[in-house]
Amino acid sequence: MIDYEFVQAIIYDGLFAAVAAIGFAIISNPPRKALAIAAFLAAVGHGLRYYLLHSDLFNVDIATASFFAAITIGLLSIPFAKYVHCPAEVFSFPALLPMIPGMFAYKSILFLTKFLQSKDQTASFQYIEQFFRNGITTIFVLFALVVGVAIPIFLFHRQSFSSTRLKKMTNK
Amino acid sequence: MDIHQELKELSKFLSDYSTSLMAVGVQTSRIVRNTSRIAESYGFYVDMTIFQKTIIMTLRDADNSHSYSTVNKIKPLGLNFATNSKLSTLSWEAYDEHIPLEELKRRYHAIVNKPRESKWLVLFLVACANASFCRLFQGDPTSMGIVFVATLAGFFIRQLLMESHWNHLAIFIISSFIASLIGSTGYLFHWGNTPDMALGTSVLYLIPGVPLINSIMDVIDGHVLAGTSRLINACLLIICIAIGLSITLLITGISTL
User: Fold this and answer.
1) Candidate from B200, B220, B242 with C-beta closest to A109
2) I need a labelling partner for A142 at 20 to 30 A (CA). Which of A93, A136, B220, B256 fits?
C-alpha cells in the first residue's frame, strides 16, 4: 500500500530543493541551460535523500543518505554533460548545493563559542558534545557528497573529461 | 617565428588562461588538464604549481632545450560556471582545430568579458531559494516569508559592499548580522510556529558551497595543498557567518539556537 502523504512530502521536498538549487547556483553564474538541468538533478537527489532518511525500509543516517543521493546526481549528470557539452560539475555542483550541511557547519562554531563562555561544567560538556556532533556531521556529509558525485566521473573517465569537446570522437 | 618569442607569447596566454580558471572556481585537476591540452596543441609541454594566490608554470619544447617560466597572480573574479564551461570548450577547440594564437586570444577575451546575470534577478532568485530552503527544514509559510525578506536585505547589502570592494570577511560578518537580525523577528514578535528555523536558515545563503565542494574534490584528486587552502578559506567564511549570527543572538538575547 502506497502512503500518499509520504509520496506528496517527497515531491514537495524535491520541488523546493529545485528552487533552492536555482537560487544558490545563480550566484556562481552558470549557463542558462545548465541551470534547468541542475534544478532537475537537485530535485531528484534531494527527494531521494528525503526518502532514504524518512522511509521505514532503510532508516539510514544523513551521511549515507547524502552519499546515495550524490551518486545518483553524478550518474545522471554524465549523459547530460555529453548532451549539452558542459563539464559535468557545471550542473552537478549546483545540484549538490541544497544538501551542503551549512547549518551543521555554523552551529558547530556557535557551540564552540558557547563552550568557551559557559561556566557550568555539565552544560559545557553538552556544548562540546554538540560541537563534535555538528562538526563530524558536516565533514562526513561533505565528503559523502563529493565522493558520491566523483565516483561516476572516475567510472566514466573518458566521457566526462571530454564532454566539452565539440568535435565527434574519432578513432585515433 | 623565433622559438623564444613563440614560447613567450604562449606562456603569457596560458598564464592568463589558468589564473582566470582558478578565479572562476574550477577544480585544480581540470585547470592542469585544460592548460596542458592547449600547450600540447602547439607542440609544447607545461608543468605548473597552483597556490591560492599565484600560479607558477614552465612551458618547454618537446626536446627540453628551450623553456619559459611565468608567475602570475590569480585574478579577482567571482565564481562563474559559464566561463568555466566555455574555457574548457576553448581548450578542446585549440586541440582539435589548431587555432592560431591570435584567434585563440580573441575567443578567450570574448568569453572572459561576457557580462554576468543581472544583479536584480540574482537577488530575487537567491531570496526565493533561501525561503524554500527554510521549507526544507520544516519551516512554516510565515517563517518562509521572514527568511525571504531577511535574504533580500542581507544579499543586497552584500552586493553593495562587494561593489565598493570591502574586505570579504567583513562583508560576510555584516550581511550575516543583517540577515539574522531580520530572521530573529519571528522570535521577537512571535510570528509563526517555527521561529527557530526562520533564524537558523536566514544566513544559509552565505554558505560557500561551491568552494567547499571544490576543496574536497581537490583533496581527493591529490592536489592536497590547493584543496586545503580552499577549505581553510571556506571555513573562515563560515566562522564569519557564525560571528554575524552571534552578534544578533547577543543583541536580542535569544539563547535557544
Assistant:
1) B242
2) B256
Q: How far apart are CA A40 and CA B29, in angstroms?
A: 27
Domain boundary among B94, B112, B130: B112
**Interface ipTM:** 0.87
Please answer yes or no on whether B136 and A13 come within 8 Å at the CB atom: yes
List of long-range contacts for A110-119, beta carbons under 8 Å, 24+ apart: A110/B242, A110/B245, A110/B246, A110/B257, A113/B242, A113/B246
Q: Is residue B80 one of the residues assigned to a domain?
A: yes
Show pLDDT as tens, one digit a residue, over chain B (257 residues): 688 888 899 999 999 999 999 999 888 988 999 999 999 998 899 999 998 889 999 999 888 888 999 999 998 888 888 888 889 889 888 888 888 888 989 999 999 888 888 899 999 999 999 999 898 888 888 999 999 999 999 999 999 999 999 999 999 999 999 999 999 988 888 888 888 888 889 999 999 989 999 999 999 988 999 999 999 999 999 999 999 999 999 998 887 76
Contact B209 A96 (CB under 8 A): yes
* Distance separating alpha carbons of residues B16 and A143, to the nearest angstrom: 32
CA B192 – CA B198 distance, rounded (Å)? 9
A13: chain B residues, CB-CB within 8 Å = 136
Selecting from B129, B210, B216 the residue whose C-beta is nearest the C-beta of A20 gives B129
Distance from CA of A152 to the nearest CA of B (A): 13
- Pairs of residues, one from chain A and one from chain B, whose beta carbons lie less than 8 Å apart: 150
| Pair B54, B168 in one domain | no
Does residue B68 belong to any structural domain of this protein? Answer: yes
| Residue B66, min C-alpha distance to chain A (Å) | 29
Residue span of the structural domain in which B62 resides? 3-112
> How many domains does chain B divide into?
2
Asked if A145's CB is within 8 angstroms of B213's CB, the reply is yes
Question: Which of A19, A28, A85 has the CB atom closest to B89's CB atom?
Answer: A85
pTM of the model: 0.89
